[in-house]
Structures are given as C-alpha cells and as structure tokens.
C-alpha cells in the first residue's frame, strides 16, 4: 500500500504535469464536406494570422471570445484581463473546479418550458436570466467604446451590469450610455476617507445605480507576476483598512443596499448575515488577489454543508471561472441566486455591444439546454439534489 506521503507526491506530480487548457479542444467543422474536427486554433487560424476578429457566427461559446481577443487585441491589453496572482493556481482552479463536480440528471420530465423560467430578481430588480456582468476595469483595452458596449448589451439582454469604479468611463459617462431599461449596481473600492466615500455614494445614487457593490477582498495589492511583466498591475494598490464596524458605518452613508463582494469562507458569510448585509458575492477576485484562495463553487459547497440557511437569509451571488451553462447550474443548484461573468464579457467587448450581447445570448441558451438535459423543468426549482460531490472532489483530487 502506498504511504500517504507518496500518494500526495504522485498526485502533485500528476497535477503539475497535466497540461492546462485555457480554451477547450472542441474545435469546429472545416467546411461543408469535412468529416473531421479541429482545435480552435486550426478552425480559426486564418483570422489569427491576419489579426482580425472572426465573424460572430463563428463564435459558438464563451471561451471562443478569449481566443479571439488574445489573437487580436494588443498583448498588454489582453494581459490586463487575463492575469492572475502569483503562479495563477487559483485562476486555473476557478476554471477547472467545475469538472470535479458531477451532475445528477433526471429523465422523463417535461422540460419544454425551461426557457421561460430563466428570469429572476436580484435585490428586487427584474432580469431575464440569473447571471450578470461582473465589475471589470478598463473596457477600453478591448474596444474604443469601452464600458458603453457592456452597459448597452446588458440592457439589450435585460441582465444586470456592475460597472467597476476604475472603469475607463466614469460613473456619469456610463450612466449616460445606459439605455432607459438598463440597470446597474456600482462597484466601489473604499478607504478610511469618509468624505471621499460619501462623494462616491452620492455620485452612484445620482447616476441611478440601484445598489453598491463593496469589494472587500482587496485589502492589499494583488501579487500579479504576469501583469507586472507588462506594467498592467492593480488599480487599487494600497493597504486598505476594513472591519465589520466600518461596514455598519457605510450602511448609514447611503440609502442604497451595500453588497459585500469577496466572501471566501462560511464564517464571513455568516458574519455578513449578522451585520445586516442584503447580499454577498462569493468571489476570489478572479484569482487575481491571493493565489491559493478557494473558488466560489468550493465556498458555495462549504456554506451548503455547514450553514445552508444563509442562502435563505440573504441573496448569495458568485463569480469566477464560469464559462458554460453547466458551470452556472452547479452554482445555482447549491443555492446561489445569480452568477457573475467577468473576463468573457470583457473579451466579447472586443466586438463592442454586439459581441457582448452575443455572449449573453450564448449563455442563456446553454443554461436552458443544460437545465433541460438535467431534467429541470423550472430553473427556479433547481437544488442540490442535481449535484454530486465527495470529499476527494471537493479537495481537488479530480481533474479533467
């Protein structure tokens, strides 16, 4: 029998040797008469060689947008979106963790109405689907219209958009670009300067934001090696004091609900409930802050196993690594109310609003198809009975 130490050594070696696929090896059919499949690189190689974006009809999944952006926009700009902390193990885990958890599909269920059940509410606001565009800065690195493409597409697709405080366009410019039917929650970084905080809150309120998203997982600068090589590090580079007492103070400084983004343990999720937070976001900042931090799926599972009542007491959202409808369904099954999509929307914005809307529609369709194949007749009734996991999977020993 192998000793535990030897087993762990073998497992670590296997994980280190296993290649990481930033995009899947699914490929695309080459011509009407072709009878073989090729990798994305082969299928769209001509566009990469000419540094041109493939037609949107050639973009069939969210990972395709990253491939297109990486081959067309300047490498420095792409790196700003793509980078993660240190060795990027948390970035990698965010993507791969979904493959370690299995679904439990049911059959003989009438799922023909599933597309009509995707609609949801987020803090009382009505949307067409249980996902939103996460806060991401510098949309101008993909397209000259910058965040205007994101806010216009979100409104066209009737989903929530959370603009970043360090966006290229300021709060007022994003509000001006937002169609009348659009809804935004303003993301913020805050420090101990109450005057500056009050001004940010006032601007968000005046711009018509329906909530504040307070990013709490960025107390220190991210240790981003890839970003530093291209001079595109974090926009929030200071040590930031924070506490639950400070959060209670913030609640008195605005009439808007304040969501806490960056919850990574069941203990902090419970403290958010205890301190009156209306909602939280399970997030490790896209793997950009602390390498070794858990994925949102792992945190959702921790809450489900140790304190499932949290999902009923407040609204819980989650982001990080979602690239397919099935990924989002695993989070929703555990009790997450809405799922954030960050990098894929930034890559899609290389096409402007049209590309972002295409990404939104792709994910809506995948949600419906995958839910139907799971035997979920009403997406609002999905629960953990559709998920399967064990201690080995939740500790990361399974992989693609």
Automatic annotation (TrEMBL):
Key word Methyltransferase present: no
UniProt xrefs under SUPFAM superfamilies: FMN-linked oxidoreductases
Secretion signal span: 1-16
Stored Gene3D superfamilies: Aldolase class I
Molecular-function annotations in GO: FMN binding; oxidoreductase activity
Necessary cofactors: FMN
Positions with a binding annotation for glyoxylate: 80, 189, 224, 285, 288
Record family assignment: Belongs to the FMN-dependent alpha-hydroxy acid dehydrogenase family.
Name listed for the protein in its UniProt record: FMN hydroxy acid dehydrogenase domain-containing protein
Origin species: Hymenoscyphus albidus
Lineage: Eukaryota, Fungi, Dikarya, Ascomycota, Pezizomycotina
